[in-house]
Design goal:
Helix content is 31%, strand content 31%. The protein is α+β, with helices and mostly antiparallel strands. Helix 5 packs antiparallel against helix 6.
């Protein structure tokens, strides 16, 4: 039996690669690491057994790059039997024969998981004039016109620490046109430290819950396109790799900025607010 891993960039790795495990500071090895990588990192694992193979993936977190690499590998493979195993709320498996609908079935699984259920992510915009002037977000909004000035970055960091408890992220447009993570405040995604350390420079849609990441990315892009701050109440049902399904309720602020040295940036911050309930009228 041989174990092959496809990472989230579409690169192939020996399943026993010590260098790969060390890159993610993982105490696991072999099969244990492959289970962890598939469930949490968007990897695809391929176990080969002579004329048979098993493909393991988690459709909700797998990337387009890794799926392209898998399709190419399957096209070259001589396997007569392919078992597709995927992780949703639990593991499921299907056996397919060579020449069957393997590629079509993989596309169905990934597309289905990437289409969020209606009402999964809800947001309601708050007008700036509705904010109390002395509230944390009110203070930030009053300072916004000055934050892009040459000396504004120091002021910005002071405000973020005081008003948002370091629950913020800074993103910037990349050459591909996607918004990329540039910096995380210490209070955001603290429970996903390994992912966060690897996320700087990655598209913001590639979050632990990819559906949620794509939804967030569209809001950031809209604020950047309008070049105007946006404040929302958010009520989202997300799926985190370690915690499963969870409801998050928070007030979100998205602020376009302009750095003299780095060009356009977007600041995103949040304040947890359990009083927000955007599902009352939907029940």
């Amino acid at each position: 039996m041989s174990l092959l891993l496809i990472d989230d960039q579409g690169e192939f790795w020996d399943g026993q690669s010590r260098r790969l495990r060390e890159a993610f500071d993982s105490p696991y090895s072999g099969g244990e690491f492959s289970d962890y990588a598939v469930a949490n990192l968007g990897f695809i694992a391929i176990n080969s057994y002579g004329a048979s193979c098993q493909v393991r993936l988690r459709p909700s977190v797998v990337t387009d790059a890794s799926m392209r690499a898998l399709r190419q590998w399957l096209a070259r493979s001589q396997a007569e039997r392919v078992v597709i195993s995927w992780l949703g709320t639990q593991w499921s498996s299907e056996l397919h024969r060579r020449g069957g609908r393997i590629q079509e079935r993989l596309d169905q699984l990934v597309t289905g998981e990437r289409s969020p259920a209606p009402g999964q992510f809800l947001a309601r915009e708050t007008r700036i004039e509705q904010l109390h002037p002395k509230s944390p977000l009110g203070v930030l909004m009053r300072q916004w016109p000055h934050l892009s000035l040459p000396n504004g970055q120091h002021t910005l960091m002071q405000i973020l620490e005081a008003t948002l408890g370091n629950r913020y992220v800074v993103v910037k447009p990349g050459e591909s046109g996607k918004l990329l993570f540039q910096k995380f405040g210490g209070g955001l995604y603290a429970e996903y430290e390994t992912w966060r350390n690897c996320a700087v420079g990655a598209p913001i849609e590639e979050q632990p819950d990819r559906n949620f990441g794509r939804w967030v990315s569209s809001a950031y892009q809209a604020a950047l396109d309008k070049n105007a701050p946006q404040i929302d109440d958010v009520d989202a049902i997300v799926r985190w790799p370690h915690a499963g399904r969870a409801r998050m309720r928070y007030k979100r602020i998205i602020v376009p900025l302009s750095s003299p040295s780095e060009g356009p940036l977007v600041l995103g911050g949040s304040l947890i607010d359990p009083s927000i309930d955007l599902r009352v009228g939907r029940r």
